[in-house]
Amino acid sequence: MKVNHGLRSCTKEIGVATLTLPSTHQVCPNRRLVLVDTPGFDDTKEGEYEILRRISVWLASAFVYFFHLQLAGIHLTFDFNPSRYEKNSMQVKVAGLVYLHNIGQNRMGRSSLLGHDLFRRICGPAALGKVVMASTHWETLLHNPAAGPIRENDLKEFLTESLSQGAVYQRIDATDPRRDIGDVIDYILGKNVVATQVQEELVELGKRVVETEAAEKLRETLKSWLADPK
Questions:
Q1: Which residue, of 6, 43, 112, 177, has the fewest CB within 10 Å?
Q2: Per-position b or e across 108-145, b if 16+ CB within 10 A of its CB
C-alpha cells in the first residue's frame, strides 16, 4: 500500500493487500488475511459525505460478498442496492478495525473529532470491542520527546467514549512498528467476528447511506459548523 509523506491525501480509492500468516503463528497459523486501507474523512479533495458513502458501500458489499478480515478502514466507488442480495448469502463480518491517529498533530481539530465520531457510528457499539485506536508517526516527535506522553494522554481523553465501550488503545512506536502492528493483528484475531452497525443498517434494515446514523451525525455536525463558523 502506498504511503505519502506530503500534504495531499494519498489514499484515493480502496487499497487491499493480502498476507498469509506463517505456520508458526501463535494465534492463527496459516490464516489468510485481507487488509483494507481507506481514505480519511479529512481528504484533500473529497468531502466527508463522499468518504462516508464509499466506506459504507464497501462494508455493505463485503457483508454480502467478499473477504475474511477487514483491518483499518474501507473504500470503493460503486453503488450498493440491498435489494439485489439475499440477506444471508455469503455474509462477511468484520474481524477488526483500526483507527489511526497521527500523534505528530499538535491539535485535535474539528475535522479530526468529526472523523472519530463518524468512525464510531460506522462501527456501532457491538463492533467497538473489535476496534484498536492506534497512534502513529511517533518518529515526528523524536526532536521533542516530552510532547509525546502529553499528546497521548490528551488523545486517550478524546477517545474515552470509544475506549469505555470496548475499544483498546495501542501505540505504534517508531522504534519497532512491526512488533506493534503484529500485536494489533494478534489482538484482532483473538476476537470473534461481528457485523458493524453500518453493515446492519444497509443490508439487514435496507437503509440508504443518507439514512444511517453516521450520515445523520455528519449532517448535524456540518449544520452546527455553519451556525458557528470558527
A1: 6
A2: eeeebebbbbbbbbbbbeebbebbbbbbbebeebeeee
Helix (H, G, I), strand (E, B) or coil at 183: helix
The position carrying cell 467478499 is: 66
Q: Give the three-class secondary structure for 133.
A: strand
DSSP code string of 33-80: EEEEE---TT-SSS-HHHHHHHHHHHHHHHHHS--S---B-----S--
| Of 81, 129, 102, 79, the residue nearest 10 (C-alpha) | 102
Return d(Cα 186, Cα 96) in angstroms, integer: 10
Angle of CA points 94, 96, 97, to nearest 5° = 105
From CA 88, how far away is CA 91, in angstroms rounded? 6
Give residue-wise pLDDT tens across range 41-86.
Answer: 876 678 889 989 988 988 888 776 543 333 333 333 233 344 443 4
The grid cell for 151 is 499528546
